[in-house]
Amino acid sequence: MVQGSWPTYGLALREVRCSSIVHILDTNMNLTAESHRIPLSDGNSIPLLGLGTYGDPRTTPKGTAHDCVKLAIDVGYRHFDGALVYFNEHEVGQAIREKIADGTVRREDIFYCGKLWNTFHPPELVRPALERTLKALKLDYVDLYIIELPMAFKPGNAFYPKDQDGNYIYHHTDLCATWEALEACKDAGLVKSLGVSNFNRRQLELLLNKPGLKHKPVSNQVECHPYFTQPKLLEYCRQHDIVIVGYCPIGSSRDASWVNLKCPPLLDDEVLVSIGKKYNKSSAQVALRFNIQRGVVVIPKSFNPERIKHNFQDQFAMGDPTREQKPPDNIAPGIPVTHKPLHHDKVAIHGEIFDFSLTEEEMKAIEALNKNIRFVELLMWSDHPEYPFHDEY
């Protein structure tokens, strides 16, 4: 393999590179749902597949997040993506603690990502915001803490501050000052890794070029799926050892209040459906496999217990960690993979995404689906000076 070449697609990957570390994949390695992680540039690692925990607080019944996270841990999930503004971190934390208490997992087995909301960008508010998350979770640290959006809002009790005319009230905070406050949180042991979300290249460069940078962002969580493949941002992040974490990896709900309905339903795409039939997979699994082969961490969400169960129990025996598994082929460089399956709140996903590989031709066919169109445009904040989506990438 040529060092630094992307993508690998049809190559049976034995040697992969992440920064200066060369990882050798044993093609006979046993894979378990607890252990498929990829390295981060700070020496930590992140599970390649996670469970998104967002549920509309107006419609999601109380206790849903708690019950589904407990079930998810039982069936193999170890990576959970949450946020203060999801209003359910207390439930997620309770579920994690209960599964630690009953011996199912240890704290170090769990990877939790929390987020700094827009109203907490001033440096003096960063640590208190993180401490609110830790207090809700009742955990001593989070594994990854990210700036949820580069757009600061007016600090205060309202997460979505508006004036008397109903307009959002913005706030100017130097992103580098916010980052320095996050670095202090890492130095204090409150968080293991630091990252960002919805940052464009310019905003990433602002942090990467910051004088006196102590801890670089290890990840950038952005929308990423076959209709919005983010090739330029993905390549830029690869060059700087920043892992892309893809949200909406299998599309989004059709909620007109925040979703761009001009983007057609992803999972109905004939190319994805056709490829899925070849492998006896759903179009959702094909979409997820596509991103994973590109080295993108995926965090689809589900609060449907039966679908969460079904994903893990169809073909992967969680109760038998010694069961031999075929290692995942065709993972992009930097991915010394181990293993773990998936879910979605609208589609039951049958089987796994780690027991098949897309060919080079199939990867190219899916790449050709790219429409450069977002499900999540956040147009209500498009007049913010730091709105990230005006730039090409």
Protein described:
- This is NADP-dependent oxidoreductase domain-containing protein.
- One of its GO terms (molecular function) is Delta4-3-oxosteroid 5beta-reductase activity.
- Helices cover 27% and strands 13% of the residues.
- It is α/β, with parallel strands linked by helices.
- The chain has a single domain, classed as TIM Barrel (Alpha-Beta Barrel), CATH 3.20.20.100.
- The strands form 3 sheets. An 8-stranded parallel sheet has the order 5-6-7-8-9-10-11-12, covered by helices on one side.
- Strand 10 (219-223), helix 6 (231-239) and strand 11 form a beta-alpha-beta unit.
> What would you say the CATH architecture is?
Alpha-Beta Barrel
- What would you report as the Rg, rounded to the nearest angstrom? 20 Å
Q: What is the CATH class name?
A: Alpha Beta
CATH fold-type name = TIM Barrel
The major sheet is characterized as:
8 strands, parallel
Pfam families: Aldo_ket_red
Family: Belongs to the aldo/keto reductase family.
Domain NADP-dependent oxidoreductase: 49-313
Organism: Oreochromis aureus
Tell me the layout of helices and strands.
Blueprint: E1 15-18, E2 21-24, E3 37-39, E4 45-47, E5 51-52, H1 64-75, E6 79-81, H2 89-101, E7 111-116, H3 123-137, E8 142-147, H4 175-187, E9 191-197, H5 201-208, E10 219-223, H6 231-239, E11 243-247, H7 270-279, H8 283-293, E12 297-298, H9 305-313, H10 360-367
Parallel strand pairs: 5-6, 6-7, 7-8, 8-9, 9-10, 10-11, 11-12
Antiparallel strand pairs: 1-2, 3-4
Helix pairs in contact: 1-2, 1-9, 2-3, 3-4, 7-8
Protein name: NADP-dependent oxidoreductase domain-containing protein
Family: Belongs to the aldo/keto reductase family.
GO molecular function: Delta4-3-oxosteroid 5beta-reductase activity
